Amino acid sequence: MSGNEGEEEIVFEIGVVVPKKGENQGDESSLDCVDVLVDEFKKRGLIVERVLGLQNEFIKLAAPLEILGKAAAELQFRKQTHIGMDLPFEWDEVEAFVRQPDGSLFTWCERFRCYNHIIYWIVNTGKSVVELKYDCREINWIPGEPLLRKLESEGVVKEVFPLHDENKRKKLLRSWALNWWDFTTQPIDEIYLYYGVKIAIYFAFLGKYTRWMLFPATLGLTMQLVDFGSMQLLVLPFFFICLISWAVLFFQFWKRKNSALLARWQINHLAGAESEYKFFQMEQSSLQSPAELMKKRGADKMKEKAFFQREEWFRWLMRFRNDAVIILSIICLQLPFELAYAHLYEVIGSDFLKFCLTAVYLLAIQSFTRMGGKISVKLVKCENNENVEYRARSLVYKVFGLYFMQSYIGIFYHALLHRNLMTLRQVLIQRLIMYEVLENLMENSIPYLTYSFKKFRAIRNKRKREQGSSTGKGQTIPRVEKEYLKPAYAASIGRELEDGLFDDFLELVLQFGMIMMFACAFPLAFAFATLNNLTEIRTDALKLLAMMRRPTPRADATIGAWLNIFQFLIVMSICTNSILLVCLYDQDGKWKVSPGLAAILIMEHVLLFIKFGFSRIVPEEPAWVRAARMKNAAQAADMCSKQLLRSISGDEKIFSQMKKST
Amino acid sequence: MSGNEGEEEIVFEIGVVVPKKGENQGDESSLDCVDVLVDEFKKRGLIVERVLGLQNEFIKLAAPLEILGKAAAELQFRKQTHIGMDLPFEWDEVEAFVRQPDGSLFTWCERFRCYNHIIYWIVNTGKSVVELKYDCREINWIPGEPLLRKLESEGVVKEVFPLHDENKRKKLLRSWALNWWDFTTQPIDEIYLYYGVKIAIYFAFLGKYTRWMLFPATLGLTMQLVDFGSMQLLVLPFFFICLISWAVLFFQFWKRKNSALLARWQINHLAGAESEYKFFQMEQSSLQSPAELMKKRGADKMKEKAFFQREEWFRWLMRFRNDAVIILSIICLQLPFELAYAHLYEVIGSDFLKFCLTAVYLLAIQSFTRMGGKISVKLVKCENNENVEYRARSLVYKVFGLYFMQSYIGIFYHALLHRNLMTLRQVLIQRLIMYEVLENLMENSIPYLTYSFKKFRAIRNKRKREQGSSTGKGQTIPRVEKEYLKPAYAASIGRELEDGLFDDFLELVLQFGMIMMFACAFPLAFAFATLNNLTEIRTDALKLLAMMRRPTPRADATIGAWLNIFQFLIVMSICTNSILLVCLYDQDGKWKVSPGLAAILIMEHVLLFIKFGFSRIVPEEPAWVRAARMKNAAQAADMCSKQLLRSISGDEKIFSQMKKST
């Protein structure tokens, strides 16, 4: 849309938003802080472009590879080398490191970290305070203070956000978001390169999930369409067993797929673990010589062990307390509320009252969820978890508890207490179709509407001001300002810990629970879900590419907590479906134990066995991935062992002599 | 007993058994093969002592540290260094490696591997065949042929077996086997040093298991002794819940204990994985230069991946087929047999007939088990598992299936079909007390009796011969011959894959199943089991120290397959106890569903949830162990990264130039 084709080589990836300079600025006696910031950016080697928007000024930043590489070396990134081993990055030895599939050296996630490192570590290296000016205020830049943080806290820099790469975005739009006829196939590698690993993993999961979903969908359709005659009674249990096996196998194969993807992208599986290690390293940051290390080792070992043990127990206690708080409050507060709603809904006759009740209920759960989310975030924050991803997981579990109650307790009520299968089916259809369609519409239209509104307001404001000052500048909004006006990819809950993936996964999980837990009451649900997921792939892609700012990349390489939630839902669905079957076959309403009930109970146990047995049969990691990992680990030590040994044993000799002499 | 105190420094650890030289040997024209063997041992630097026994001659071998070290370097052992990282052993850099708690460099397991390497790699380095003589036979030692193997196949060397270290053995006897008043505490570190990791882990497990067992034992005793009045009905379910939680927590804490022990003994957890890596390394054994590696990398990667994928699927199929064979044959052959026995036992009135029946049954299952074991070993052998420990595990699962049916199906029959709780209790008491006491007696007396018988026969033979030749040599048997006459620590089943630990673990597992699965019928069982395990610790120790040869050490560092079997038994016991409770509370014999049955069903599900949920709450590895592991992994790469990088990137440059020029 912006026709500057010559710019192809420079890709601006970070945008900094500052207010437009007031026009009544004449005196040049002290330094304008924005000019200083731009100068400092340039000094660090960044390529800077200043763009004047309608309301704000934008500083677009790009970095030559060398600048990024040096930042990476300072950050001590571990990157895979050509011998297959991860080593800390060095700019001088850049040839040793494996490049990305598209030929670039760093992934988007790494580039983003480098940019952050560069721009947030512009400190005042002089010895005196630098006086900066902004509008009419004075800002004192104290020695050693990072400039960008200072300006952010003073309100001069409004935001720092990642920019879309217009060429790649358009390419992806064509090859991915608008490519409806590809059904579940997606250009995962390009998504990975553009959005980073976490989002790519989400879409890979969504694709594989939808592909596998075709099996139960056809099974459900057949059950609906074909009349099995006298076999009808046996068809449902058969469907049930197929379904559970399907779900268990799917998640096992997903784990394999996940680790295969990570191996393809050369991501070390234990990347998360590494950050945990740094947690203790602070104390011994000066580790260089083996001799020093060894001296510390003996004394430190016991101290370290005690430290970790204390830490572990404390963490465990905090987590236990928090979980207890959450679980108790869900059971004591939310459960009665939901049951009251379900009961009133069942009891009330008039349709109008029902409608009113539902409206009140919807408003109530909105605020309930928001409150619950806030409490969860607060609890998670005092949990002292090792790193951000652990915290995000802890939050996911807690918030899912809320949503679980909210989404299913009413359905349980209809299914179990009133044994009203017709109402159950109605509720399911209603939820599945209405809810999903509405969700999809909402999540795509709301960002677009907010964006349009913001744009409209910006133009209107501009016009108003122009009428005042009557300078005849062009009306076009620069692209970077358009991006700034787009909403960020953030979670509806706990913005600090999770991004928009939270909502997308939540939708998927709730759908999975809905179709699995009540599968025996409504086998057709899988067909609906398949259709929904097929559209979900493209609409989510469209949302990410066209309606949102580029999300900040995240390093988590698995679907994390959600996987455990899926597993939990499988177990739940074994139990609920067993109960449903009992209800279906026990028509006269008395809990009479016939051979039928015994059979269902036995089947339930067999299924639980399948659930927990199958995961042992299929290994989580393909053999080739495992072998490659092993090889890398072994090579790591082999390559340099001799020389290392010499230095250790040399130092050890000196050390033991020292010991003797003292 | 042998009073040579001056020998303290030389510890003979390997014994080689050769026949006594016939006395009619006069001609010295060609070489006697035993003399050659001894000479070769001496040439390799081993310390050799020849002892003339009553029936055989014994060559006792000891090795100075340097000889072992050089063998270790040839074998490329990975050992932990002082910086905490595992590196291949080098004799010249011996100072760099961590020593054992008792100051020795190598563990018993490592020493044993070194000895084996030394003595089995005595090859004919010359170019011509060496003609050896034994009695009157000629043995041709072909160039490149290992001498010991040759002599073994010719029947000259009867056996090679590890020798007890008399000092340490006596010390352990005092501090461990005869130390009854220590109850569950044992000198685990010394056991580890003397017997190696696998046996030490067994005893650590047994100790911790017995210690934890005190809790359910006291609970069971209280239930038996105290009369709860009207609460009686609630006590049993409470006991049940406590029990399952106890079992789940115990195994979770055992895993922690296990990894803590391994960290203390400086054993790398992934040692098993390493051997798997070597599996593919054969093809690229010449890896030295990074450049070579890289050239291969591109082409090899795809081939390797395909190879591993094929391999994995093939292995999976084989395993699946074998498991299917085993399961089907157990269900189709063993189950009807066991049920027939249980039914006949129930039906027959006369005590004499019952006794006959039991005798026939016992004989039948003896041969049944032996046959099953043989089939299992054969099946496992064609499974193409990665290494020996995998095979052993596979065998354990298969054989356990047999024993499971054998031990429990009769009890199930009494409990479930006949709902005869009195018979059930009788059978349980009978099995627990009689069986365990008998087992203990048998496993200790049989080795002793066989040993005594062999010794007696040896002395008698000697006497007979002496009467013939009438030379007046002393009647004392040398110690090494006594050890040779002792039985080896071998499994009753599948001698090639498992050692005596198999039987010990099997006993433990069967006991666990018995007391857990029928806990609600007989809570007192835990007290019996505790007493039994307390004696088991000492009698097993006594057996190992006094009645068996020193076992060949094994490298497996966990209780492996048995852990999974324990877990399986916990799940089984949730189900069986639920059924037992239903039987107990449903006295009139009709399967009527009262609120009681519903309550039990709910409880069962809660317990299953506990089982699978609890294992997530308690991490398997203590935080300090994990942190130490992480640190080692990170240091590995950090220490030598710069220099490595230079060599990789240098080679890479050359490589890319080469590519361009071609």
Automatic annotation (TrEMBL), chains A, B:
Transmembrane intervals: 192-214, 234-254, 324-345, 351-369, 395-416, 508-534, 555-581, 593-614
Compartments, as annotated in UniProt: Membrane
This protein's GO CC annotations: membrane
Keyword Transmembrane set for record: yes
Keywords: Membrane, Transmembrane, Transmembrane helix
Domain Anoctamin transmembrane: 191-630
Entry annotated with the keyword NADP: no
Membrane-related topology note: Multi-pass membrane protein
The protein, known as: Anoctamin-like protein
Organism, scientific name: Forsythia ovata
Upper taxonomic lineage: Eukaryota, Viridiplantae, Streptophyta, Embryophyta, Tracheophyta
